Amino acid sequence: MKAVTIWRAGKCFPAPSRARLRRMTAAAAELAGLHDVPGGVCVSFLSPAGIERVNEDFLGHHGPTDVISFDYRAEDDPGFDAETDASGVSDDADPSIELIVCPAVAYEQAVKRGLPYAEEVALYVAHGLLHAAGYDDLNPKAKRVMRRAEKRVMAGLRKAGLIPPMEYKDSVE
């Protein structure tokens, strides 16, 4: 599956290997049950101010959040009519699924939960992809089902060694 990553998370959150981020995203999509997604997945890692703007503009919510998921597969978008290669994915096709992730929120939550920062970022990618796969967390029963799916996806990423190392720099020179 095609995966594109964009890292604009700020100076305190240096970008990890983009190739490793793409491999993690593609694997997480497969583990979430997203097979044969035309156009692939795009993940943008934004600062709190960046994700706050997206949150307000598209969801009407105030403040930064952890992850926002957009699924464009159902839209009648002429961008999806581009010719495809043998794998069924076009280099010209727009992404079918877009995730916006905030590493700063991931870092805060990782500290609170006593987890590695990289694991929290990977969890947000998994969570957003599971939403695109049809999972929801709006009621207690659905939330339990989604949490089990998150654990399954994260276990698969860990087992394959696909969570890239990430760091937080408290001070930037």
Summarize the structure in words:
The protein has 173 residues and is an alpha/beta fold. It has one domain (3-76, 90-159): Collagenase (Catalytic Domain) (3-Layer(aba) Sandwich). It contains 5 helices and 4 strands. Helix 1 (18-31) crosses helix 4 and helix 3 packs across helix 4 (117-132). Mean pLDDT is 89; it is low at 77-89.
Give, in order, the helices and strands. EHEHEEHHH
Instruction: Note the total helix count.
Output: 5
Q: CATH homologous superfamily? A: Metalloproteases ("zincins"), catalytic domain
Q: Return the CATH class.
A: Alpha Beta
Structural class: alpha/beta
What percentage of residues falls in helices of 4 or more residues? 40-55%
- Which CATH architecture would you pick? 3-Layer(aba) Sandwich
Briefly say what this structure is:
The chain is an alpha/beta fold. It has five helices and four strands, in the order βαβαββααα.
What is the topological layout?
Layout lengths: L2 E6 L9 H14 L9 E6 L1 H12 L7 E5 L25 E5 L1 H11 L3 H16 L7 H20 L14
Parallel strand pairs: 1-2, 2-4
Antiparallel strand pairs: 3-4
Helix pairs in contact: 1-4, 1-5, 3-4, 4-5
Keywords:
42% helix; Collagenase (Catalytic Domain); alpha/beta; 4 strands; 13% strand; 5 helices; 173 residues
